[in-house]
Amino acid sequence: SGASSMSGKLQGCSTRITEKFPQALYIHCASHSLNLAIGDACNISSIRNTIGTVKEIINFFRPSGKRESILKKKIEELGSTSKKQRLMRLCETRWTERLDALISFKELFCPIFFALEEIAEHGDGDTSRNAFALMNSLKSSEFIISLTVVQEIFSCSHNIATALQNPHIDLSSAIEMTSGLSNILKNKREDSNSFQTLYVLAQNLAQEIEVEIKKPRTAKIQRNRSNYDVDNVEDYYRISIFNPFLDHFISQLDLRFLKHKHVLSKIENILPSRITSINQSGIEETVKILCEQWQRGDAIEILIVKELELWQEYWRTTAITAPTSFIDSIDCCSSTLFPNIRNYLEIGAVL
């Protein structure tokens, strides 16, 4: 893909650019970065297996008009409140579309289960066996918990994922949005009631297909699955699914977005709307960080500090309304009087 061609460690375009221009700051497409963060978070085995099962069930129904008609009949019989009459495809790349598919799947959970049950009882050969296996997958406590958790957590990111697809979004806005998402997820992680609410929803879903949420038997010798020494079922799934999934998602967001936050916060200090409130130590710290990122000698660093002081004084005394964006600020910055500041404004404009 274009993104992988850009970011490849050995032959990627970004690697070749940084070889020639070591000071270049590589920033991935914000929307793709969120997709990667979500995708990596889904490498938690329980979540990965659940999404795999959802995909299998969707692929079981969609190609067959006969099976879809059985599903539609169950939707009508059970009086489902969902407006969906068929399952959506599980998109491989766009997580906004994948989330929509997961939401519709959960809304149709009971009709799907009873449609599989009917096909398992009255279908022929392989179709019956496949339906029976998929039906048993839906009865799994791990599946029901994981489906409930993944829909809730990804719903938090849905609007942000849509916003990040805007071609005009800048790094500052992307970091601000993902930082907010990260804080929401951290609050959910720390709030004991967050999972309790999801656990009740999962229990209700299980009751509708007449199964009970149970924790798996603890093996004496562990081979393929982690053992958690807890007796309470809710605590077991909190520790084994909810917490690891949130931790992984948060770490991926921080890794892919917030690593540039420090440099960005400093370059934003030179904006006219910000510079007037920065004290002397703030000016010196800003210049130090920017010179470290875009290497300059000590002598140049001192000159830039003085240039920034002059820039600050200009905006404190002028009657012109201070611009709040890099692009607007460039038009107000003389390349003769403020050459270094203009350079940083131009860098900020393309981030």
Task: Give a verbal description of the structure.
This protein has 351 residues and is an all-alpha fold. Helices cover 70% and strands 0% of the residues. It is built from 18 helices and no strands. The longest helix has 24 residues.
Sheet-strand content, in percent, reads: under 5%
Can you count the helices?
A: 18
Structural class: mainly alpha
The termini sit apart by 22 Å
Show unreliable segments. Answer: 1-11
Number of domains: 2
**Strand segment tally:** 0
Rg for CA atoms: 27 Å
Largest sheet: none
Order of helices and strands: HHHHHHHHHHHHHHHHHH
**What does the overall shape look like?**
elongated
Helix content: 55-70%
**Overall residue-averaged pLDDT value:** 84
What characteristics describe this protein?
0% strand; disordered N terminus; 351 residues
Would you spell out the secondary-structure blueprint of this structure?
Layout lengths: L1 H6 L5 H8 L9 H12 L3 H17 L3 H14 L16 H13 L1 H14 L2 H14 L2 H23 L7 H20 L1 H17 L24 H24 L4 H7 L4 H4 L4 H14 L4 H20 L8 H6 L7 H12 L1
